[in-house]
Design a protein that fits this description.
The structure is a single chain. By secondary structure, the chain is mostly beta strands. It has 2 helices and 20 strands. The protein has a 20-stranded antiparallel β-barrel. The chain is globular. The two termini are 34 Å apart. The relative contact order is 0.10. The N terminus is likely disordered.
Length: 428
């Protein structure tokens, strides 16, 4: 993965850039282009994140671009990060890194619109694998389709939609897919800030491993807004059918979610969420629930469950504390194993004065990897100091210490990383 566009199916990134260029004349009359330049020098005593430590020094330079446009019936936004990495000890080859998101919407009428979104990111396919240039792969997700809203009454809406989604990976071990989705949502608004939504959807997918998938979902959701509390409760049912080599497999399960956000005081906010989702393990949903899935790449049905709870506390204008806990389960029904992940993280950001600030965080993660019948424990501690020299020029100094232990000795390592970086925002 040495250069910019390594996809087996390349056009998606070019389409993203092309659409933005076509919109550039309009964008010039909208919000100005935001540009951030950065340079970082970093040293790690274990750059490969393995038991056999190898140290190296990394130099990174990057540019971040961002622009939003809202002109009449058309709106769009573009965010892109481009970087170049060089390891002075040649542990890894020189590499161009790319992450970009384009989102556009055209309103043909108040009821009918068409949306386009393209996301190019870098990720890992297995969370048990340390994140290094050799383990990162590029993922591109292109989604486009129309939406039509029928205002039945002042309290009732019917929203119809259709989407085409294409997921491509720069990896032979991941499964690319093309997916067509149809949706129908009925929405009723009660007088007491209560909203009822009945959602129905069907998705038909074609995977690169010659698998055909059909996913049918129906869900009812209630959302309620109180003075300091926002809640939603959803219960649904999902059926998943896969066909490959004349073999048909079917799965079905109850799904749902619950969300609550409570502003206890002006300084303290509390939140909790629960998700229960049935999907195939090659879907984008796996990455939405498990940012780094424990396992990925087949067409097996997967039941995902996730609990997230935490608090944000800002006792004054200088300090912000955050506490978060996550408990996730990935039940791979076809493979016959279950993976679990539990994590706890805490952070503290402090503004010393108008020039200096610092940030500290610690995270503990436990994974139960069913495929290996192993337990993994990870610790990640970070300390960062920021200095604002001028209005548009700042520097950062940081240190990170990572430790990973495993009951079967796989992927164990410890690594200390220190670095310094500068950021410049030019004025146009």
């Amino acid at each position: 993965m040495d250069y910019l566009v390594p996809f087996k199916k390349k056009p998606t990134l070019f389409a993203l850039v092309g659409v933005n260029l076509l919109c550039a004349p309009l964008a010039l009359r909208a919000e100005p282009l935001e540009v951030r330049l950065s340079a970082t020098q970093e040293y790690s005593d274990n750059v490969t994140k393995t038991k056999e430590k190898k140290d190296d020094t990394l130099t990174k330079v990057g540019i971040n671009l961002g622009q939003t446009l809202s002109k009449g019936v058309y709106s769009s936004s573009l965010s892109a990060d481009f970087g170049f990495e060089h390891y002075w000890g040649d542990t890894f080859g020189d590499e161009v890194t790319t992450e970009a998101t384009y989102s556009g919407k055209y309103n043909f009428s108040p009821a009918l619109s068409w949306s386009l979104k393209d996301e190019l990111t870098e990720t890992v396919l297995n969370s048990s694998t340390p994140t290094t240039p050799d383990s990162r792969v590029r993922k591109n997700v292109l989604t486009t389709g129309p939406s039509y809203r029928v205002a039945m009454t002042s309290e009732d809406d019917l929203v119809l939609g259709a989407n085409y989604k294409q997921i491509d990976f720069d990896s032979n071990t991941a499964v690319d897919s093309k997916r067509q989705t149809a949706t129908a949502d009925y929405i009723h608004r009660f007088a007491s800030a209560l909203t009822f939504t009945w959602s129905n959807s069907g998705e038909w997918a074609k995977l690169d491993n010659d698998t055909d998938l059909e996913t049918l979902e129906s869900e009812v959701r209630f959302s309620k807004q109180y003075n300091d509390l926002t809640t939603s409760l959803a219960v649904g049912f999902t059926k998943l059918k896969s066909e490959r080599a004349n073999v048909t497999n079917e799965s079905e399960d109850v799904t749902g979610s619950f969300n609550a956000n409570y502003q206890a005081t002006a300084a303290l906010g509390l939140f909790y969420s629960y998700k229960r989702t049935l999907t195939d393990s090659a879907s984008e949903t796996v990455f939405q629930v498990f940012e780094r899935p424990i396992s990925f790449g087949s067409s097996d049905s997967v039941l995902l469950q996730e609990h997230v709870a935490g608090a944000n506390y800002s006792p004054n204008a200088r300090d912000t504390f955050q506490l978060s806990g996550v408990s996730s389960t990935e039940d791979n029904e076809g493979a016959g194993f279950e993976d679990k992940e539990h994590s706890l993280s805490v952070s503290w950001s402090h503004k010393i004065n108008s020039k200096w600030s610092w940030f500290a965080s610690s995270e503990y993660t436990n994974k139960e990897v069913g495929a290996r019948n192993a337990d993994e424990d990870s610790y990640d501690h970070t300390l960062r100091l920021n200095h604002k020299w001028f209005k548009n020029f700042s520097s950062r100094y940081y240190a990170e210490y990572e430790v990973k232990d495993s009951s079967d000795g796989v992927n164990e390592f410890d690594a200390l990383t220190v670095g310094v970086g500068v950021d410049y925002v030019p004025n146009f």
